[in-house]
Please model this.
Amino acid sequence: MTTRSFRGRALPAIALLVILGGCRTPEAPPPASPVGTVAATNAAAPSLWTCAMHPQIKKSGPGKCPLCGMDLVPAAPAETAGHRASTGDSRRLAMSADAVALAAIQTTPVRREAVSKEVRMVGKVDYDETRIRKIAAWVPGRIDRLYVDFTGMRVNAGDHLVYVYSPELRTAQEELLQAKRAARAVRKGAVTVLRESSAATVDAAREKLRLLGLTPPQIAEIERRGTASDHLTIYAPVGGTVVGKQAFEGMYVETGTPIYELADLSRLWVRLDAYESDMSWIRYGQDVAFTTAAYPGEVFHGRIAFIEPTLDPRTRTVKLRVNVDNPDNRLKPEMFVSAVVRAGVTEGGQVMDPELAGKWIGPMHPEIVREEPGACPICGMALVKAEDYGYVAPDTETTPLLIPASAPLITGERAIVYVRVPDADTPTFEGREVVLGPRTADSYVVRSGLREGEDVVVKGNFKIDSALQIQARPSMMSNGATPTGHRH
Model:
């Protein structure tokens, strides 16, 4: 950033009154006769007095302000050594070079360049809801043994979990064995229709056992053994970590009674809270870097997979969800994290990301990024253009205008920037209302009101505005209209 300083130093209060109040110490008069000295003194005496708080009060001599009781001060003449109004524009203030130096006014040009910001958030690690499985009883009966009898245990697909006694299971096995015997009896000498009917009955009995939770090897063992069993071993259909145990040995269960809850911790969610003021920088699919207290100095990465459509009225934040791979199970649910999103924004408010611009993203799986349109290999949904999520490629035409954060004077209703008028005979500054965009660490994006290359005041702008207020001219508090007096 280029900054020009008008050889200044700290401005004492008395000097500020002299510069901004239009007063100056007269030069020593040349030697003259007593009559001439008296005449010169009378000519230099102020002819108009006003109140510093209520500039609409005008008196021909010194006294007290009828509104606030303050002593009246000499009114500033039309031309002073400190500053003077520019004709034709009541928002302009012309100052001498000495006044600019004493007020320590500095300016910098409005520039157009890529802007980025770090959005910091906090949150915690959570389970991936899409990878949680319930293990329930497939047949009514009694749990005679729990092979996995505590939460937190790691199991693999195919591991035995529960040993269940079930009379219904025994009945289903007997049906299979009887169907097998009937099929053997009609295998020879029977008509084709009867043989096909017997084979269909055997297949139906096998399918019933499969639906009751038996695996193909278990069904084959029953057929080989030729006898029915009244106990069933339930195996884990998927691998994961036991995060819930709802049953115990000796408990009678019905079909569908929950026994275990398994969670696959190789993929986790990180839930974050983003303030509403930061939402202009947040997009679906952005990379998120985060750290945890458990592994100081190590940075983990994930992508934003969901942005809640509503705002939490209590915290004034929007909930975000980040998909994170956890192949080594180092991250644990309920861990606190500190996250950061680094984003660049164009003049129109779109996010610049070279890695995603022009690409196609999975609508439910942001880790799926392709060069061409197609279907998501995970969920089968059609890929979506990155532009539909607010991404654009870095381009000079969309690079925003930036001003330092110290340049605008911001009220609750407007933002005022003081711009140095080019080619003026004396340093002249013009107040201009601007529309600001998002703020970075030390800059504001300018939506409208300024042009590239214009010099804006970054230091001493409040002194210029105060001078305009003292003269009852438009300032940051007057909304462009000439005020009628001080508003308490």
About this structure: Confidence is low (pLDDT under 50) at residues 4-43, 78-88, 481-488. The two ends are 39 Å apart (CA to CA). The chain has seven helices and 33 strands. The helical segments are 13-20, 34-44, 97-102, 167-185, 192-211, 216-225, 461-470.
